[in-house]
Amino acid sequence: MKNVHPAIATLLCQRWDDGFGFLHHLSEKLLGEARSQTLLDALCDRKTCQAEIRDAVDFLYEIGTVEAGAQALAWSTLTCDPRRPETFIRVLPQLQHALEASDLSADDDGDVRARVRFWWRCAGGEFAKEKGSAFSVTNKVLFDPPEPEPKPLTLDEAVLRWMSKPFPGPTMVVMPAAKASKLTPYNRHFTEIVDKPLPLVIARGLDEARKRLGYEFPHAAGAMQTLFKELREGQPVKLRPTILVSPPGTGKTRFVRRFAEAIGIQTVFRYDGSAGGDNHFAGVSKSWSNAEPSVPARAVLTSRTANPIVFIDEIDKPAVNRNTGSLWSALLGFAEVESAKRYRDQGLDSELDLSACNFLCTANDVTVLPDHLRDRFRIIRIPQPRLVDLPLLAASVMEDLGREDEERAWDDPLAPDELQVIAKAWQAVGFSLRKLQSIVRATLEARDQFAMRH
Amino acid sequence: MASTAKRDLQRDLESYACGEVPSALELLRCPVLERWSTEVRSRGKEYVLLIHAEALRHPEYGDGEPITTGAVFWFDRKDRFIRTAQRAFVLGKPA
User: Fold this and answer.
1) CA separation, residue A433 to residues A218, A251, A387, A410, A418 (Å)
2) Which residues is A272 bridged to in the sheet?
């Protein structure tokens, strides 16, 4: 670094003190003994020291030589203070010019340029709140190792952070504050969604979903077509309240789950109809100590979306008791958009807009359902699987078994002769998917038993 | 012409670096920047200093017209004058 402009050499110092020491040593001859001593004495007081440095700069410029002028510029770098951006303005243009005129090695050139660029940013006032001299701030920001990676968030923290940001897609406020009453300690967790625009889940990849589900449920093609007809690619998922009807063992429950996954809905809130003995579906009134909001409201809170799927399994099998109410009557408030839009939840004692919630139900027999329910729900029949569906269904059963048991994941696909045996057995027991599952499992076990051992 | 301007700039910067300042006569001829303020602007990876001001005695602008100078090559430590690639300016009162 010989013959480098003193201002550039000063710039490379780690601290202001180092720069001062370097320049004091360099300029001792030109400044003279008395002035050098005054500079040293002034070090203890910041203001006096700055005034002395400015005097020294004037003095050096007055000498009028190239060497003195260069030292004067070097001294003026010590007057720069990040908290006063204007102090950089009077130094940087000439410093930049000195840098352009210097012949530095590639390494030094990169380093000095990075520092000068940083000083320009200080001149723009970007670091006006930093404490410390221009030199220490430069080193701190440019060369200190970055802070260690923050700890990964827990699920709750991640959800909270995500909820605090506005959602970029379509949203809907389910629980407007203006129509909400004070929450009790039992349902305080609902404060999270009060007045919060909740995202509406968008239907994505419908073509792909239709194709995949077609392979998995070849017998339910008609039902699928009806459901998919209502969905639009890139639009929020909204389905009319629907009951899927079919004889036992046709894979309705699994169909609902896979359908939701395929169209992009993460949360399917399952409510077991056969266990519903009262109107608990609509919540427990706030006037009771153990108040509880309705199932759809809980589905919204769990999913943090405005259009979850509320899935009522076995809607035809709840206990019906006039004294305690029933699932069937509890459902009425939700099944029509008009009433769901202004649903007063008795557990929260607040008006909720549940018009975007989707209700999918399954049943074996819809004749037992009351008229008012059959009226409000669309009924889609899923036919029983046929023998022609066997190859595709058996393959999806194999896939399921592989998911349950890792060892099964590597099994060979069913051979034609195995399929023939399965077909015979399946035909004999009636075409139930549950039966097919046990037949396939038995076939695979038999195959293991008779496999060639080496 | 361009090379003359470049040579003039080089010569001026060398003389300023040695501590000289434009003579009183020269300063009388320079345009004046009144109510000036500074701006640091990024240009690619680098930065330049520009001055926004109202010009007086400028050969290309009317008096009082707001102008923005080109990149400043020298800014006097006592706010007396600046030098851009084209010419020197006398600094009047800041905004």
Assistant:
1) 12, 6, 12, 22, 17
2) A313
Alpha helices in A283-415 (DSSP H): 295-303, 327-330, 332-335, 337-341, 371-376, 390-404
Q: Is B71 helix (H, G, I), strand (E, B) or coil?
A: coil
- pLDDT (mean) for B9-26: 92
Q: Backbone phi, then psi, for A292, in 5-degree steps?
A: -145, 135
- Give the pLDDT of residue A357: 92
Per-residue model confidence as pLDDT tens digits over B20-61: 999 999 999 999 999 999 999 998 889 999 999 999 999 989
- A9 phi and psi angles, rounded to 5 deg: -60, -40
* Closest Cα in chain B to A96: B73
Q: Which H or E element spans position A265?
A: none
At A184, the pLDDT band (50, 70, 90 cuts) reads confident
pLDDT, tens digit, 9 for 90 and up, residues A36-58: 999 999 888 888 999 999 999 99
**CA torsion, ordered A412, A418, A420, A422, to nearest 10 deg:** -100
- Three-state DSSP string of A13-56: CCCHHHHHHHHHHHHHHHHCHHHHHHHHHHCCCHHHHHHHHHHH
Question: Which strands, in side-by-side order, build the sheet including A378-381?
Answer: A268-272, A309-313, A358-363, A242-245, A378-381
CA distance A4 to chain B (A): 15
Which runs of consecutive H residues, i.e. helices, occur in A239-331?
A: 252-263, 295-303, 327-330
Pairing of strands A197-199, A309-313: unpaired
- Across the A/B interface, how many CB contacts are shorter than 8 Å? 68
User: Which residue out of A57, A87, A90 would a mutagenesis test of the B interface target, given it has the greatest number of B Cβ atoms within 10 Å?
Assistant: A90
Cβ burial of A149 (10 Å; 0-12, 13-18, 19+) is exposed
Q: H or E element: which one contains A141?
A: helix A134-143
Residues A396, A440 contacting (CB under 8 angstroms): no
Contact status, residue A269 vs residue A303, Cβ threshold 8 Å: yes
Structure token digits, residue A394: 């058996």
Do residues A98 and A70 make contact, with C-beta atoms less than 8 angstroms apart?
A: yes
Q: What three-state secondary structure class fits A313?
A: strand
Residues of A in contact with B19 (CB under 8 A): 60-64, 68-69, 72
Tens digit of pLDDT for each residue in A189-222? 888 888 888 989 998 889 999 998 888 888 888 8
